[in-house]
Amino acid sequence: MSASETLAFVFLAGLRRFAGETPLSARITPMQWVALAKELGLSESARSEAINSLRTKGYILYKPETTEIIALSLPGIEMADLQIRKRPKVSDPFPDKLAAICEELDYWELHLNDGDPGSIHWDQVQARIEGLRHRENRYRQTSSVIYNAVGTNAHINQNSVDQSANLVLEGGAAESSLPHGDSEAALQEDEPTTQVSLRNFHVDSNLTDADMLRRSDGFLKNLVGSFRQAAANGCFTFGPIKLQDADLNRVHGIVTEIDARRLFYACSEDEVPRYAMESLYEARRAIREASKGVWANPSCEVLVQEITATLADFCTKGEKRINDHREFYNLMTGMRLKVWLLVAMLKKKLGSVLNPRNLPAAIWLSVRDEEI
Prior knowledge:
By secondary structure, this protein is mainly alpha-helical. It contains 13 helices and four strands. The chain folds into three domains: about 5-85, Arc Repressor Mutant, subunit A; about 100-135, no CATH class; about 180-370, no CATH class.
């Protein structure tokens, strides 16, 4: 379905709600449907295109024909009722299940730009997205509960969301058949295959790699500090880790999703914030899908959760600055630096099995020398 068709059905659903319990006999005057379209966030051109489309399909008609008073046809009522059942409303109660929260969040992120920025509907959708993200983060918060199992150091990680558990045998997580670095020295020898400049992250040509690295170092210190706190709480372990094949494939998929999108490594003046946000929504959905379920290693889960939180934070801030290109790109730069720092941390902990092409060498070198 094209964007114009989507807007037409949004308008049709609005007309149906306005018509109330007697839709066949309802007559909607131009003053009323102009106000309705504005409330729904449709521009004048989008409104005109929606009306022409709905009239061509026979979903609405002018009654009398010589006026612009809109009446709904029977097929139009049926189609509108179908759209209303499928389409959530910004006034609906918030869902209380994680799957339902993610499903509605995907819907509103996809339709955020259906209306004009600054319109009543656009503001309502933004508020709805923020509320859903808050609930998603709350439902995704997990904690590890340790029980005595078989062996001196064996334990069970239990997920606090779904209460599922997995056994971690003495000596750590199960061995993976895929290659890993076996020592800190082996990890440090592994370098990125390309030399991506940090200046690619920002449109300001006056910024040097040294400027960007200073900003990156600040983020790195904050991240390491938060991981030390997580380690004190038993949710994070410093040093190299080995993952089961299933978890390793999940991490590889997440890193590939980031590495394959120019959103995360290339910035230019001709980039449109709206399209950058759409790419971000797609990446966030893919990463969220890959990270579902229980992880055998809590350290890896903590890093992936931090990536998800970084993207969610930029979603919220970027949407509010979508018309201020300078500030939008500045926020995007911070998001890119944090994401690649976290990718570099995953690479340091997992070894040569991760080798993202667009990981900046400067970021890798700064992370490589830290205790992670």
